[in-house]
Write a structure and sequence with these properties.
This is Nuclear transport factor 2 family protein. InterPro entries: NTF2-like_dom_sf, SnoaL-like. Pfam families: SnoaL_2. By secondary structure, the chain is an alpha+beta fold. It has a single domain, classed as Nuclear Transport Factor 2, Chain: A, CATH 3.10.450. About 25% of the residues lie in helices and about 40% in strands. Strands 2-1-6-5-4-3 form a 6-stranded mixed β-sheet, covered by helices on one side. The radius of gyration is 14 Å and the shape is globular.
């Protein structure tokens, strides 16, 4: 049986690859808060999240992604990820921890990405 966070991460990856507004909208509640880094100013509300996402989008097929769930307690899940950008401005590999608070319908109410760039060899 698929867990809510597994379903959500699959949807996130689908949206990451498509940059389709419907795919993005399906991930977040109307009043969600999205933090691209713990201390970053958040994108608040679905329209601001969509606008921010599209402004910072990655071209489809330009990234690699692996993930594993770390912990879930109630509506909060922590996910460990490795994101790769073989080319471009972001070029490199990043270790990520995502903290995701899901609403009862499976959409995220809060999302925070904690990321660290791996040293380039």
């Amino acid at each position: 049986m698929t867990t809510p966070i597994e379903t959500w991460v699959a949807g996130y990856r689908r949206a990451w690859e498509s940059n389709d507004t419907d795919d993005i909208r399906a991930l977040f509640t109307d009043d969600a808060v999205y933090r691209g880094a713990p201390s970053a100013a958040p994108w608040t509300g679905i329209e601001e999240i969509i606008a921010g996402w599209l402004e910072h989008q990655d071209p489809p097929g330009s990234t690699t992604f692996e993930w594993t769930p770390v912990a879930t307690e109630g509506d909060v899940s922590v996910v460990q990820c490795v994101s790769g950008y073989p080319e471009g401005d972001k070029g490199g590999t990043y270790d990520n921890l995502w903290v995701v608070r899901l609403a009862p319908d499976g959409r995220a109410r809060e999302f925070t990405d904690w990321y660290i760039a791996r040293p380039r060899s």
